[in-house]
Structures are given as structure tokens and as C-alpha cells.
Design brief:
The complex is a heterotrimer of chains A (533), B (294) and C (526).
Chain A (H helix, E strand, L loop, with lengths): L1 H22 L20 H6 L2 E9 L4 H14 L4 E9 L5 H7 L7 E5 L3 H6 L8 H10 L2 H6 L1 E2 L2 E2 L2 E8 L1 E5 L11 H11 L2 E3 L6 H10 L4 E5 L5 E6 L4 H15 L3 E2 L11 E6 L4 H8 L3 E4 L3 E4 L2 E4 L2 E10 L6 H14 L2 H11 L6 H4 L2 H5 L1 H10 L2 E3 L5 H7 L2 H7 L3 H16 L6 H5 L1 E6 L23 E6 L2 E4 L3 E3 L4 E6 L2 E12 L4 E8 L4 E6 L1
Parallel strand pairs in A: 1-2, 1-3, 8-11, 8-12, 16-17
Antiparallel strand pairs in A: 3-16, 4-5, 6-16, 7-12, 7-13, 9-10, 14-15, 18-19, 18-22, 19-20, 20-24, 21-24, 22-23, 24-25
Helix pairs in contact in A: 9-10, 9-17, 10-18, 10-19, 18-19
Chain B lengths: L1 H11 L1 H36 L19 H8 L2 H32 L5 H11 L7 H11 L7 H11 L6 H8 L3 H9 L4 H12 L1 H13 L6 H7 L8 H7 L4 H28 L1 H12 L3
Chain C lengths: L5 H9 L6 H6 L2 H51 L2 H6 L5 H5 L3 H19 L4 H7 L9 E5 L4 E5 L4 H37 L7 H7 L5 H27 L22 H6 L9 H35 L6 H13 L2 H11 L5 H8 L13 H30 L2 H9 L4 H29 L2 H7 L22 H10 L5 H23 L3 H4 L6
Antiparallel strand pairs in C: 1-2
Helix pairs in contact in C: 3-8, 6-8, 7-8, 8-10, 10-21, 12-16, 12-18, 13-16, 14-19, 18-21, 20-21
Classes of the chains: A alpha+beta (533), B mainly alpha (294), C mainly alpha (526).
């Protein structure tokens, strides 16, 4: 029964795809990925179509493996669709899920948990299957909007919110640090130096922590993404007057001999009096410090007589479903499971077992949640925090060098240089080099019906005006690198810098007779010719 | 040889003896210092593995509470499986790699055929490419063969063995030092090429065989970058290096598993170290015999 | 054994180009050294040119050989009998009809397998056809109204097309080679039969595999392994350097990748791509890589010899124990020992703790946070890893130095130092020349030590960015690893760096290798 249904379903789907493919000649490769569509009501018949047994691979953090297994068992017993999952749950930390996922998506987990900073990469590689319209509505309504935003690219929701506790604050050893000093970075540094104890704040190897100083002075790094996870623009003000103030504050800490670039709970065992880290370290630190554990928001630092409270990232953990290709039934079943695993009751279960702060709005209001000392400190810091949103993958690599650069700087000019260096790299993620601006390319529709040997193929790259195909210099002229088989009736244009501002001819160039041609463009006359091979 | 001569000399000059004693004690002092520097990290790791009062990284070396708890805890984890995986890989690789290396080096040392020089130059050039990029592609090949994840063990064996022919230099150097006249005498007596190898050359090659087995056996214990790719993070497909490192994936896990990691490290290092010490003599002979010709 | 002073003789002989021997001998010590240095530097371009010419000659010969052999094939077809002619189409036919059934069947089997592979729907022809484009149809996105979900159906897989395309080409080359061998055999068989002799039987064929053709038997397996698991990945890697394979074009689930020609090579030699001066970054990392390789090799080498001499010194007891302690670093996997050592030198590690409690320093030394210090530290810690190897090699060689050399030196009144510089060192250098070279090149690619100790850090702001977070201790090899594993991997670029690493290593080897005295006379020892 399941197989027949699956067959029917995939048939419908393929038909709809075919309709899509033949109909559209627009410039966007949008396909049917259109979340503005009205949510379809799921007929009861399709519900039972999901019934069956599925083998799946699940990745979650090591501490959550047992709980996740239990929750999947619960789902198997309770779900209304007749779905049974045979799940293999492997420990893969949320921190590195994307690294492993992107090595080989085929071998990656069907359902996996990941920290927010990997979201953009995963969407870009199509390793996340977006939520259906109906599921998206439900999830959006139930969860903290900040966390929901973390799972969205453009207008599309790609992942299920799981926690909202991925932020950092300050743990300190009460036997060393007087409670009165916890508000001032300068006093804390002095206390640590006096006691010969370390101040652990992972500034040199992690942009996530480093951003704290810049957010503290009101700098922003906001990125906008499109529906497919592509980055459209950035508003980054790290290289500014405010940024300079942040760099000065940063220098105070990194210059201290007692600064340690680490966020590990174990540093309390190794001579640290302060560690800036998150809720996940709470149990370990409690273990080490016992009653001397203090947890509070980050301190303020002072530059030119003015005080700035350190900011932070307010991030979360998400759960994603891997696209299953043709196996749409399994994919639908997986979405049901993901939705179950991130609903209110499951989030509360996770909080009770692992102290993971829930993203669900109702769960967040529970007394037990607000009273949890780690989460309380995080909430205190949250006032100064910035929702993490979507951040370009390269940003983490570019920003993390600021601390070493600031440490090496000897004067204000050095600090400024560190920031200019940073901002030039950020802006170049979007601007083209002069070479790229001058490069000519061909874009158009070269769908062929008669292939190289015998097939009838659809050329994704050369179809639908989807991608610029580079031209190479040929004396004064430019031409395509290879001769292409171009069927009659194809249309294209030649443009410069991948922009429509400079494009020729005004009307599309039409190919009259099929053949194997080089497309040759002469910039002196703006003339396009086809040269047979 | 030179020692004997020196002894003979020193009898003639009595003053030399005192001088010698002084310089010897100086050498002893230096050797002791070197030994301490060499041993400190290992002693620390061993001491950490006996620490019972906590499981994380701590600032002191000598445990406050001693115990074997970390070692018994190892048995409750996947560690025995990782250990078995690695042991199988190490044993099979040691045997097959030795066979391949010997085939290769013996042929290149003894036979003179048309493409011999070209082949040696070609392999020299191949060896200059950084292997690390090949990992991505080898991963795909193994994945298509179904030798990843839970079946990573045969996959790892295949990759290590297949490329082991490249490491023929040392043993070829060794074979070069065995006089060719031995082969020729046997050939005159009517032995075929294979008999020459089996009856004449192999019995003389004990050091280089043991050297090759030893290096082949030791390699798999330390393989962590490629083995990690291949395991696809399935706990049962990991080797010890990947498995132990997976215990230190996050700071929280370091806090929970650090002493366990040290205990695991000791258990891994022990057989390799003991084997190496026992066979050291052959290793030296093999490597010196081979290094003469490189 | 080899003549001891050949090493020096050799050096002299090489530099006699301008000065005559007498003139050279009259030079002062410093001038002699300078002269030798300059003349060896001056010969580098010539060496390179010779190397390039050698490669050129190789290819010319290779292609001429191919042309020649195909011309011969034509002649054979015209002159051969009908059995030979038919063998052009049915491989092994000639062998079978002339009684060499075993050979013939093997040929035939190979042909059948080949043809099946090529015409299979997803077989050789398919991959070949796709190779020029690296895939035509990218992933399709759609919406499944019934189950209310998004769908994504990937089609072509650029990575797989490249992989199997390369494999297919390998297979075709192997087929053409076998086909040609099949015809050659017919030609030879015809001649043998014409002269009235008998052909070899299958049994004789098998027998020759353990005798006259024993080298083929021995090499078959190792070479197959090397071709599939070493050569093929390298060719693949080289090809990737001409594509735009990266995070945005992963070849399957987001976008196909395609051929971009020399684009990635241009990037690496550009002054400004994505705010990164790639050329300068490359130069900087290359310089450090060479400095590192030099120090890592020679500190280990001389200290290793020194330690070996100490242990071998007459009157030193328990030699075995000293050696055993040292070789522990070889026996214990580096991911355990180096990881621990790296933690020992942390700002709050036990080394700093010890230094402070002994009163040697007042505040902690940031070993890994200061660029120059981190660089010194990796070299120093590498000594800990590397000395034992040299010590083992040196131990064996030192025992082989003829004792009478020392004896006569002592009679001449040579001091211990003089004996070392005049006898021990030249002897060691002579014998271990190739070892030094290989250890230099493998140090250039010493991934483990850098990766486990510093991970490349501390970061180098000017060089970082689109090229990954490059650090001051990064070698080329760890840099290219970072480029493939960073948040936005760039495989094409990494491959280009891989090729450049190869070129650097090859140039160094080419220049040095042929100058090594012990390489020149391979046959002398036997």
C-alpha cells in the first residue's frame, strides 16, 4: 500500500516539476520553491500514506543521545500516522555537525541537531529541507521569534528550533572575585592579576566570543539572506568610532598577562578565576567550584570615562531534516518526527534532563526554567545580547583574527589598522574585483534537444538564464572557452561584470541555424558573431 | 671496533683515563637530563590515567586519589571495539604491506627491465604530491565500494596497503647491500627467480622484514585525519585515534572524559611501545642497511 | 664500503668549472666556501633547464613512440595473415587459433568486459560524454502539494562524473595498450611459426611468471594499487585545480561545478582577491615552510648524531635503556603525545606552572600566542619527536665507520672535534644524503606536528580572510587543509596550492638529488 501511494505521489510530483520546467523562462531558477503558496490541507488519505518502517540516522550531541533515542521510541508508540522509525543515533556535537554533513551529504544524518552559526552553510549546500507551509506556521507560532528567525533564510523556514540557550555569560570563583567587582572589566582584570589567577575569555580563536566587545559599544554585523541561503548584503560597523572604542576595551583584556583564550570549564581547575562560557558548562563548573560558583552577566568596560556593557550573541540550536530526494514519503515522515522532537513537551523534557533552555514560548515561561541559575544568568545577559541571525561563513574566519591583531598593535593607529583590515575583507565578500567587473560572460538559454551522443538533455547551467558562462580573451575580442552545440532558436546575451547594465545586443541574440559555435564578442563594435568550430 | 682501539690506547696514557672518566660522567649527566625531558610527558599521561578524584583537565600532575577506575570504565565504552578494529587493521596492514613492499623493492633492486628507471623516477615524483588532498577522492571511491562507516576497517586496510608500494626505498637499499653474486650462483645451479627469492634472499633479510612489519603495524594506530572521514562518525567504524579524539570533541566532553582519554592513550601506546622496544635491534639494522642507499 | 672522502672529492670536482685545481687550492678557506656556494647556486637554473628538457624529451619520445607503434600496426595489418587481421577486431583470436588458448581467452575476456563497461547505460560512454561539461542538469527544487513539503531532487553529480570520467580514460588507455599487445603477439607468433619454431604453451607461460617474467608477477599487485589509489587521486586533484569546485558549487546538491581554466591559478598569484593578497600570503607561508623544514631537518640531524655518539661513547653503560627511552616518542602515537605536550605549554599549563613556582618567571609565558615564540616552540618540540629516528640511523652507521680511520687520525694528533668534522660528519653526510633530502621534503609536508601542536596559530591577520584563518605557524600543507575544511571550502584553490607544493618540492629535489654523491653510483655497491 505504502509503495503504491509513494508511486502515485512521486508521479504527481514529477508531473508538477515537468510543468514547472517547461513553462518558465524567467531569469530566476526559483523552481517551485515558493513559500507564499497557501498551505495545502493534508487529506486523511495521505496521512496513512506515511505509514511504514523507516531506517534513519540521527546526529545529536553526546549528552542527548539517550534522551533522543527514548523520544523517538515515544514517537513510534504515539504517532497517528503509523510511522515506525528504526533510528541509529550517533553522537556528533552540535558544534561540528555542518563540518561532517558537508563532507558528504549522502552519508550525513537524516535528522540532525546543529548550532545556529552553521545554518547558512547548510542551507547553501541544500543540506536542509525547508519546512512545509503548514508545519512552518505551527512552528513559528509556538516558538520564540528570535529563534525562529535563526532558522529562516529570506522568507523560508529551514529548521526546527530546539533550544535558545546558545549564548555566553560569566562564571567566576567567589573565593577570588568579590561580588562587588563583577560589574567592571577593569576591576576583574585587576583582581585576577592580584590573585595571579586567569581570566578565561576565548577571544583569540573564536569570533563568537570576540564580538562581545563590539556589540557592547553598539557595533553591528547584520547580514541578509535570500530564500536559497545566499547572502545579499551586510551592514557591518565594526570599523568605526564605536569599533575603535571596542578595540581599546579588547586591548585591555588581551594585554593582561592573566588573560587566557579559552572557554573550557576545566580552566577553573587550571588556575582560572573567571571563565566566559555558556549554560552547557554549568554542571562541570558546579562540579569544580561547588558553592563558590558565581554566574552573572558580562561586565562593563570603561574607555575615555564612559562605560560600555559587554554584549553577546544570543544564539540557539536547531534541528534539521536532510532532503531525501525521490523518497518523499520518508522525508515527510521525518518532518513529522522533527516536529514532534521539538514540540513543547519534548523541549521541556530536554530541559529537565539536560538543562537545555527551551525555545518554545510556553516552556520558557515555566518557573523551573526561569529559576535555573545558569539560564538566569543568561537571561540577565540577554538584555545586552544581539540575536545571532544569519552570518556569512567566512565572517567567523575573518573576525576571529581581530584579537591577535589588536594584541599586536602598539598604538591607536595599529588598532585602526586592525579594523580596516577586517572591514576590507568583509566588504570584498560582496564587491567584485576590477577584473571581475570587466569580465565578459554569456548568459542565456541553450537548451539542447540533441546531445553530444544520443541523449536529450536539459542543460541546467546553460538554461533558464541561470548562470553566467565566462568568456576568454582572444586577441582584442572575447569568446567562449569551448565551442558549444547550440540548437536553433536559442537566445542569449553577452554582458559585463555579471550585470545587466552593460549587455549586448539590446534584444536577445537568436541562433538561426543549429551548429557547434564559439560565441565571439568584439567590445570595439559590440558585435556578436557565431564562429563555427 | 673503535672501542677496542681506544681501550688499547688508554692503557698507554694513564692521564687519559681520568679525562675519560670526567667526560663520561658529563655524558651521563646529559643523558639523564635528556631522558627526563623525554619521559615527562609520558609519565604525566600515565599519572593522569590513574587519577580518580576528577575527570577533567587539572593543574597538577600527581593524583590525589589513585585507582584503576578509568581503565575499567574503558571497558564500558566503545573503546574495546575501536581497539579491536585498529588491531585488525594493524595486523593485516603489517602483513600485506610487507609483502607488497618486499615485492616492489626486491624487483627494483634485482631485476633490470625496460621501465625500471622510469618507474623509480615516476614514483619519486608521485611521492612529492601532498597526499592530503587525495583524501577527498579516496573517500568517494571507498564510499562507492561500500567500505565506509561500519565497514571502514577493510576500507582503511585497502587504502594503506594499496599505496604502500611507494615506500620501497629503505628495503630496496637493504637488498642492494646483499651481493648479487649470491643470486647468480644460485641461478647457475638451476634455481628459478622465485626460488632465489625464497631460498637465498629472504633468509638474509630478517632485519628488513621485521622493520617493514613494524612500521606497517605502527602506522594504523596513529591515523586520525583520514580514518575520521572514512568512519562517517559511526562509533563502531572508528579506530582508536578517531574514537579517542571524539571524546574530546567539546569542552564539556573534555571535562567528563579527559582521564579516560589518557587511560585509553596508555592502553594504545603500551603494545606498540613494547613491541618496538623488543624489535628495536632489527629496526636499527633495517633502517641503517636501507639508509645507506636511501 | 664506499671511499670515505668521496664526498669532499665530489664537491671539489663539481666546482672546478672556472678555476683550475691549483688555482682553487690556493684560495683561502672562506673564499673556497664562497666559491663553492656560488657555483652551486649558479648551477640551479641549468639544473632546472635540464630537468625541463628531460621532461620534454620524455614526452617527445613518448609520443613519437606511440605514433611509431601505430604506424607499425598498419603495416602488420597489411602484411599479416587472416588470423592476425581478425585479431584486430576479436582480441585473442590469433592466439586461440594458433594454440595459445590461455593467452587468447584472457585477451578475449578483457575485450568483452571492456565493451560491456563502455556501453552500459551508466558506463564508460556516459561518463566520457559528461566529462567536458561535468554535468548538465543541476538539482531541481519543487513543492509537493499533497504532503505539503519542499522537495529537492539532485541529478548529475559533477564529482562522480570527474571521478568516473578519469577512471574510464584510465581503462581506455589500458585497453588500447592491451589491444596493441594482442596484435604484437600475433605478429611475433607469425614470425616464429614461419621460422619453423614452436610457440610457448600456456603452461610455459605460467612458468615464466616465476622465472624470466618474475618481475611482472611481483610488480602487478603493487603497481595496480599505486595506480588506483595514488596516481588516480593525484590526477583527479590536478584536474580539480581547473574547476570552480567550492562551497557554492559542491557538484551535487547545490550547483554543479565546471571547468574554469586557469582561474584558480590566477587567484593564487593575485594581489587582491576578497581583501586577501594571495601572492603575498603564499610567499609568506612558503618562506616559513622552508625555514621550518630547514631547521626541523638539521636540528634533528645534528642533535640526533650527537645523542647517538653520546650513547655509543666507550664506557657508557646501559646503552639499550637510553635508546629505549628516546624511541618512546616513535612508539607512542603522536595524537596522544603531541596533544598532551601542546597542553603542557599552554599559558596555564604545567610548564608555566613549574617555571613560576621555581621563580624563573613572574608571569606566564604565552608560548602559543606569540608568533615568533610559537615558531621556535614547534621547532624545539619537533626535536623531541625527530631525534630518535636520526639517533637510530646514526647508531648503525657510526658502528660501520672503519676504526682504522680514527686510529690514524689519532696518530696524527687530531682532536676529538677534528675527528668529528673530518671523519664522522663527512661519512654520515655521504651515507645519509638521500635521507636528509627526503626528511627535508617530508618536513615541508609535516602535517601532524603543526596541526596537533598549534593548529597553525597564532592567527596572521593580514593573510587571513577568504583564504581561511591563516596562522603564523601554518605550513603550506596545513594551509591547504584549512582551505578544504574552513567554513567556505575552496577545493579548486586548495588543489592549486597542492600543485604548487609539488612544484616547490620537485624543484628542491631536482636540484639537490642529482648532486648527492651516494645517488650517482647506484651499482657501485653490488
Amino acid at each position: 500500500m505504502k509503495k503504491i501511494m509513494a508511486l502515485v505521489l512521486s508521479l504527481v510530483m514529477i508531473l508538477s516539476l515537468a510543468a514547472c520546467g517547461s513553462g518558465s523562462t524567467s531569469t530566476s531558477a526559483d523552481g517551485g520553491n515558493n513559500s507564499t503558496k497557501a498551505p495545502a490541507t493534508t487529506p486523511a488519505a495521505t496521512q496513512s500514506a506515511l505509514a511504514g518502517t523507516y531506517k534513519i540516522l540521527v546526529w545529536t550531541g553526546e549528552d542527548a543521545v539517550e534522551l533522543t533515542k527514548k523520544q523517538i521510541e515515544d514517537f513510534n508508540k504515539s504517532n497517528e500516522y503509523g510511522i515506525t522509525f528504526e533510528a541509529e543515533v550517533n553522537p556528533v556535537s552540535e558544534k561540528e555537525a555542518a563540518d561532517h554533513m558537508l563532507i558528504d551529504i549522502n552519508a550525513g544524518a537524516d535528522l540532525y541537531c546543529f548550532a545556529q552559526d552553521q545554518f547558512a552553510r547548510l542551507v547553501q549546500s541544500n543540506a536542509l529541507n525547508a519546512l512545509g507551509a503548514q508545519a512552518a506556521e505551527t512552528v513559528k507560532a509556538a516558538n520564540d521569534p528570535v529563534v525562529v528567525a535563526a532558522g529562516m533564510s529570506g522568507e523560508t523556514l529551514y529548521a526546527y528550533p530546539m533550544t535558545s540557550d546558545n549564548g555566553y555569560f560569566m562564571y567566576y570563583d567567589k573565593s577570588v572575585i568579590p561580588d562587588a567587582d563583577v560589574d567592571s572589566l577593569e576591576k576583574l582584570i585587576a583582581d585576577c592579576e592580584a590573585a595571579n589567577k586567569y581570566f578565561a575569555f576565548e577571544l583569540n580563536t573564536s569570533a563568537w566570543y570576540l564580538a562581545s566587545f563590539f556589540f557592547g559599544t553598539g557595533c553591528v554585523s547584520e547580514w541578509t539572506t535570500g530564500d536559497d541561503g545566499e547572502f545579499i548584503s551586510v551592514n557591518d560597523t565594526f570599523d568605526s568610532e564605536k569599533g575603535l572604542i571596542a578595540a581599546k576595551g579588547l586591548k585591555k583584556l588581551v594585554d593582561s598577562p592573566m588573560h587566557l583564550s579559552s572557554s573550557s570549564a576545566d580552566e577553573f581547575n587550571n588556575g582560572a578565576a573567571i571563565v566566559v562560557t555558556g549554560t552547557w558548562a554549568f554542571d562541570a563548573i558546579k562540579d569544580i567550584l561547588g558553592d563558590n560558583l558565581g554566574a552573572t552577566d558580562l561586565p562593563s568596560f570603561e574607555v575615555d570615562g564612559q562605560s560600555y556593557h559587554l554584549g553577546s550573541f544570543n544564539g540557539c540550536k536547531l534541528m534539521g531534516v536532510k532532503p531525501q530526494g525521490q523518497d518523499t514519503v520518508k522525508q515527510a515522515a521525518l518532518h513529522r518526527l522533527a516536529q514532534y522532537l521539538t514540540d513543547e513537551a519534548r523541549q521541556i523534557e530536554r530541559f529537565e534532563a539536560l538543562s537545555w533552555g527551551p525555545a518554545n514560548l510556553n516552556a520558557q515561561k515555566l518557573d523551573a526554567v526561569t529559576a535555573n541559575p545558569g539560564l538566569a544568568a543568561l537571561l540577565k545577559q540577554n538584555v545586552y545580547s544581539v540575536p545571532q541571525g544569519q552570518i556569512h561563513g567566512s565572517w567567523w574566519d575573518i573576525a576571529k583574527v581581530i584579537a591577535d591583531d589588536v594584541k599586536a598593535a602598539t598604538d591607536e593607529a595599529g588598532l585602526k589598522k586592525a579594523l580596516t583590515n577586517y572591514s576590507s575583507k568583509i566588504s570584498s565578500l560582496f564587491t567584485m574585483t576590477s577584473d571581475e567587473k570587466e569580465a565578459w560572460s554569456v548568459i542565456g538559454m541553450f537548451n539542447s534537444t540533441d546531445g553530444f551522443f544520443f541523449t536529450d538533455y536539459k542543460d541546467e547551467k546553460r538554461s533558464n538564464w541561470a548562470e553566467d558562462l565566462p568568456m576568454v580573451a582572444d586577441g582584442e575580442k572575447f569568446r567562449t572557452a569551448d565551442a558549444w552545440e547550440i540548437p536553433a532558436g536559442c537566445e542569449f546575451k553577452v554582458r559585463q561584470g555579471k550585470s545587466w547594465d552593460v549587455s549586448f545586443p539590446a534584444e536577445n541574440f537568436k541562433v538561426e541555424t543549429a551548429g557547434t559555435y564559439f560565441i565571439v564578442f568584439d567590445p570595439a563594435t559590440n558585435e556578436i558573431t557565431l564562429t563555427a568550430k | 671496533m673503535s672501542e677496542l682501539n681506544q681501550a688499547g690506547n688508554s692503557k698507554k696514557h694513564m692521564g687519559l683515563k681520568a679525562k675519560q672518566r670526567l667526560s663520561n660522567s658529563l655524558v651521563y649527566v646529559m643523558l639523564v637530563i635528556i631522558s627526563i625531558v623525554w619521559l615527562i610527558p609520558f609519565v604525566c599521561i600515565v599519572l593522569q590515567s590513574f587519577r580518580m578524584e576528577s575527570t577533567g583537565r587539572v593543574g597538577y600532575v600527581i593524583p590525589q586519589v589513585w585507582g584503576l577506575g578509568n581503565y575499567t570504565r574503558l571497558l564500558e565504552t566503545n573503546f574495546p571495539r575501536w581497539y579491536l578494529n585498529t588491531l585488525i587493521i594493524a595486523l593485516v596492514v603489517a602483513i600485506l604491506q610487507t609483502i607488497i613492499v618486499l615485492c616492489m623493492s626486491y624487483t627494483l633492486s634485482r631485476f633490470r627491465f625496460k621501465i625500471r628507471k622510469g618507474l623509480m623516477q615516476f614514483m619519486l615524483i608521485l611521492g612529492m604530491f601532498p597526499g592530503i588532498l587525495g583524501m577527498i577522492i579516496l573517500y568517494r571511491v571507498l564510499d562507492d565500494l561500500g567500505l565506509t562507516g561500519l565497514h571502514a576497517v577493510p576500507g582503511l586496510i585497502l587504502v594503506s596497503v594499496a599505496s604502500s608500494g611507494m615506500g620501497y626505498y629503505v628495503s630496496k637499499g637493504f637488498f642492494d647491500t646483499i651481493p648479487k653474486s649470491l643470486d647468480e650462483a644460485a641461478r647457475v645451479d638451476g634455481a628459478n627467480r622465485m626460488q632465489v627469492l625464497n631460498k637465498i634472499i629472504l633468509p638474509l633479510s630478517k632485519p628488513i622484514v621485521i622493520y617493514t612489519v613494524l612500521t606497517g603495524f605502527m602506522g594504523p594506530w596513529a591515523d586520525f585525519v583520514f580514518a575520521r572521514y572514512i568512519s562517517q562518525l559511526k562509533p563502531l567504524g572508528m579506530n582508536v585515534a578517531v574514537g579517542l579524539q571524539s571524546w574530546l570533541a567539546t569542552d564539556t566532553m573534555v571535562h567528563d572524559n579527559y582521564t579516560l582519554f589518557c587511560a585509553g592513550g596508555v592502553v594504545v601506546a603500551l603494545p606498540v611501545a613494547i613491541l618496538f622496544m623488543c624489535l628495536q635491534k632489527y629496526y636499527v639494522e633495517g633502517v641503517t642497511g636501507g639508509a645507506v642507499k636511501g | 664500503m664506499a671511499p670515505t672522502f668521496l664526498f669532499q672529492e665530489h664537491l671539489k670536482g663539481r666546482s672546478m668549472k672556472k678555476y683550475t685545481e691549483l688555482e682553487y687550492l690556493r684560495l683561502s678557506k672562506g673564499k673556497k666556501f664562497l666559491y663553492r656556494l656560488l657555483s652551486s647556486l649558479a648551477s640551479i637554473p641549468e639544473k632546472l633547464w635540464n630537468g625541463i628538457k628531460g621532461i620534454g624529451r620524455f614526452f617527445a619520445k613518448f609520443f613519437l613512440g606511440i605514433v611509431h607503434s601505430f604506424a607499425n600496426l598498419g603495416k602488420t595489418f597489411v602484411n599479416g595473415d587472416w588470423k592476425t587481421k581478425l585479431s584486430y577486431f576479436i582480441m585473442g583470436f590469433g592466439n586461440i587459433s594458433r594454440g595459445q588458448v590461455l593467452r587468447g581467452l584472457l585477451f578475449l575476456l578483457f575485450e568483452v568486459v571492456f565493451i560491456f563497461y563502455m556501453v552500459w547505460p551508466q558506463g564508460g560512454l556516459y561518463w566520457l560524454k559528461m566529462l567536458p561539461s561535468l554535468g548538465l542538469q543541476g538539482p531541481e527544487k519543487g513543492y509537493d502539494e499533497i504532503l505539503d513539503q519542499h522537495i529537492l531532487i539532485p541529478h548529475d553529480n559533477s564529482f562522480r562524473i570527474l571521478l568516473y570520467g578519469v577512471l574510464t580514460i584510465f581503462f581506455i588507455v589500458a585497453f588500447v595498450y592491451t589491444w596493441r599487445a594482442n596484435i604484437r603477439q600475433n605478429e611475433i607468433a607469425e614470425k616464429i611459426l614461419a621460422s619453423g619454431k614452436k610457440l610457448k604453451s600456456g603452461k610455459q607461460d605460467l612458468h615464466s611468471l616465476v622465472d624470466d617474467n618474475f618481475h611482472k608477477t611481483l610488480l602487478a599487485l603493487p603497481l595496480t594499487g599505486i595506480i588506483v589509489f595514488t596516481v588516480m587521486p593525484i590526477i583527479f586533484m590536478v584536474l580539480v585545480a581547473f574547476t570552480n569546485y567550492d562551497a557554492q558549487h559542491n557538484g551535487y546538491t547545490n550547483a554543479l561545478f565546471s571547468w574554469v581554466g586557469l582561474e584558480e591559478f590566477r587567484t593564487i598569484f593575485s594581489w587582491d582577491v576578497g581583501g586577501v593578497n594571495y601572492a603575498a600570503t603564499f610567499g609568506e607561508i612558503l618562506t616559513w615552510t622552508l625555514i621550518w623544514a630547514f631547521f626541523a631537518t638539521f636540528t634533528n640531524y645534528f642533535l640526533g648524531i650527537f645523542v647517538a655518539m653520546m650513547i655509543n661513547k666507550k664506557g657508557i653503560k646501559i646503552k639499550k635503556l637510553w635508546r629505549t627511552i628516546l624511541v618512546l616518542t616513535i612508539a607512542i602515537p603522536q595524537f596522544i603525545s603531541l596533544l598532551y605536550v601542546s597542553k603542557m605549554f599552554d599559558k596555564n599549563g604545567i610548564v608555566n606552572g613549574a617555571l613560576q613556582s621555581l621563580g624563573l618567571t613572574t608571569s606566564a609565558i604565552d608560548f602559543w600566542g606569540t608568533p615568533s615564540l610559537a615558531r621556535i616552540m614547534v621547532i624545539v618540540i619537533n626535536i623531541w619527536i625527530g631525534i630518535p629516528y636520526v639517533m637510530l640511523i646514526a647508531t648503525g652507521i657510526l658502528m660501520n665507520i672503519p676504526a682504522d680511520l680514527y686510529e690514524s687520525a689519532r696518530i696524527d694528533g687530531a682532536s676529538g672535534w677534528k675527528q668529528f668534522t673530518k671523519i664522522t660528519l663527512p661519512y654520515m653526510l655521504f651515507i645519509t644524503g638521500p635521507y636528509l633530502l627526503t626528511s627535508f621534503t617530508s618536513n615541508m609536508n609535516n602535517f601532524n606536528v603543526i596541526y596537533l601542536l598549534t593548529g597553525g596559530g597564532p592567527t596572521n591577520a593580514a593573510a587571513s580572510g577568504a583564504a581561511g584563518a591563516v596562522g603564523h605557524t601554518d605550513l603550506l600543507i596545513t594551509w591547504l587543509f584549512k582551505i578544504t575544511t574552513q567554513n567556505e571550502p575552496k577545493y579548486g584553490l586548495a588543489s592549486v596550492i597542492g600543485i604548487l607544493v609539488f612544484l616547490v618540492v620537485a624543484i628542491i629535489s631536482l636540484v639537490v638529488y642529482s648532486r648527492l654523491p651516494s645517488v650517482k653510483n647506484e651499482e657501485d655497491f653490488q
